[in-house]
Amino acid sequence: MSSTVPELYIAVDVEADGPIPGPYSMISLGMAVAGRPDLTFYTELRPISDEFVPAALAVSGLDRDRLLREAPTAQEAMSAAAAWVNGLRRVGRPVFLAAPAVWDGMFVHWYFVRFVGHSPFGATGSGIDLRSYWMGLTGSEWVQTRQGTIKHELGLHDMPHTHHAGEDAAELAQVFDAVLRRRQPVEEA
């Protein structure tokens, strides 16, 4: 039985300055709806702690001092993100999507609960992990599910992974849209 409200797969990407939320900070958040390149969200966030791992911060290329001066607070950024996700309910049911869902989901869920009081993706913050989905779709093993491998299998070339949360969310949305188009429709009983 299918729902009459279409699902909107919201590709989410996070850049952070350390391995876990709380002691470390999410410093940017990007979201993009698979199949709808016109529906995107991006924000940078002011760090919430003094701790950071220089190598983790370097991945994003963001300037921590600039973020401390200019970026919205975590509460402002996450409130805007929640409003954007909730606004999508006019056209469909938001479903969290990430690669890997464990990493991005950990930060996003913690930040929504801590700074908004709840997650617009639900109480558990659950969602779809691209690599797990690909395993189920193709019967491949985990080692064969790297995003670069998936892109190659789908014939998606010239799609760089830049470590800019907005660009990487848009990339993931394009990849997942191609994955969805590849799957076989389930016959109704």
Automatic annotation (TrEMBL):
<dbReference type="GO" id="GO:0003676">
    <property type="term" value="F:nucleic acid binding"/>
</dbReference>
<dbReference type="InterPro" id="IPR036397">
    <property type="entry name" value="RNaseH_sf"/>
</dbReference>
<protein>
    <submittedName>
        <fullName>Exonuclease</fullName>
    </submittedName>
</protein>
<keyword id="KW-0378">Hydrolase</keyword>
<dbReference type="InterPro" id="IPR012337">
    <property type="entry name" value="RNaseH-like_sf"/>
</dbReference>
<dbReference type="GO" id="GO:0004527">
    <property type="term" value="F:exonuclease activity"/>
</dbReference>
<keyword id="KW-0269">Exonuclease</keyword>
<keyword id="KW-0540">Nuclease</keyword>
